[in-house]
Amino acid sequence: MPAELLRAFDAAKVRQLVERTIREQKSIGNLHQSLRDLGRRPLPDEAGRSQLHLFEERLGVNGFWRLVLGVGNLNHLAFILDSLHPAFRAQVLAARHALGRDDWMALARKGSVYDLARFARDSFALLPDETAARFRYAFEQTATAVAEMSTWSEVPLSPQPTTFWTPACVLLCSPQSNFLSVKQPPGR
Where in the chain are the domains? Predict the structure, then answer.
């Protein structure tokens, strides 16, 4: 039954749903959980495909970025990227579809230093080189301001000094820092 409901949602209906979500400023903070559930549900008569495949097809790359930019932040994006099928994730992160510098900066400004750190730690390595360069630029342009506007409770503390972020993360936010010079953080 849920697969039939998803099939009933054509691209136009999904666009309407995305626009309503943005207009009403609904949170997508738990969207990754629903995506994982869809990924565990096979599509009848379509071997190797799940309801997540169908949802991703209906949403499309443009709808994905519209939703993330409209009501998401970098923390949400990190969770969502982890929940997507690898082929769709590669498609949305490909340079021709991924955010430009200005959109990365806008997304970074929507959250706290925790969101920025979480994305840098857990999702930066997923980015193709050109997309990574755009994010790195946005990070260098926004990190200090984002860190200055964040509260201490939003500063990611790390029990291991080899991970991306430590209590001194504010110092790492300076453009002179080279902590994003490698895509794979130490210790991962």
Answer: 1-93, 99-188
